[in-house]
Design brief:
- About 10% of the residues lie in helices and about 35% in strands.
- The chain is mainly β and about 150 residues long.
- It has one domain.
- The strands form 3 sheets. It has a 5-stranded antiparallel β-sheet with strand order 6-5-4-8-9, with no helix packed on it. Strands 1-7 form a two-stranded antiparallel sheet. The protein has a two-stranded antiparallel ribbon with strand order 2-3.
- It binds zinc ion (ZN).
- Zinc ion binds near residues 51, 53 and 67.
């Protein structure tokens, strides 16, 4: 009975904020370092100076008006849980179950950030819940933007 097994694996799961997450290191690039290698206190998103829209994932031109006048800009770090799942397969040895998620930003709800949901119990998670960014240390100075429920 696979359904019963899945329920038992998920029961009581809590996704804590990890001390670090060294198994993912984005390539260093001046086009994306503002996102991955900030100071760990504020989320920065590539924003168009011509139309004001956030373009994500970042690129050399605005995804809305094609202007090249784009630059990183600090955002609130608050958003809404758009989608989530639970991974229990340890793709990396020792990997605990985790909660891959997509979050929309309060500043622009068509921006979807692929992330992890942390500091939450499995049975508390609901699409539409308000969330806020929390940074987790990766390797090589990376600060990974994960999200947790707003409490
Ligand atoms: Zn634009």
């Amino acid at each position: 009975m696979s359904a019963a097994r899945s329920e038992s694996v998920l029961e009581g799961l809590r996704f804590a904020i990890p001390d670090s997450f060294p198994s993912f290191t984005p390539i260093q690039s001046p086009d994306t370092d503002f996102y991955w290698r900030g100071d760990g206190t504020a989320l920065r998103m590539l924003t168009c100076n011509a139309c004001g829209k956030i373009t994500h994932p970042p690129g050399p031109v605005c995804g809305y008006c094609y202007s090249r006048d784009v630059a990183p800009k600090q955002v609130s770090g608050r958003g809404t849980l758009y989608a989530w799942t639970v991974n229990v397969q340890p793709f990396v040895p020792g990997l605990d179950p985790y909660c891959p998620a997509m979050v929309t930003l309060d500043e622009q709800d068509d921006v979807k950030i692929t992330t992890q949901l942390v500091d939450v119990n499995n049975d508390e998670i609901e699409v539409g819940m308000p969330v806020e960014v929390v940074f987790v240390n990766g390797s090589d100075g990376v600060k990974l933007p994960f999200f947790r429920p707003v409490r």
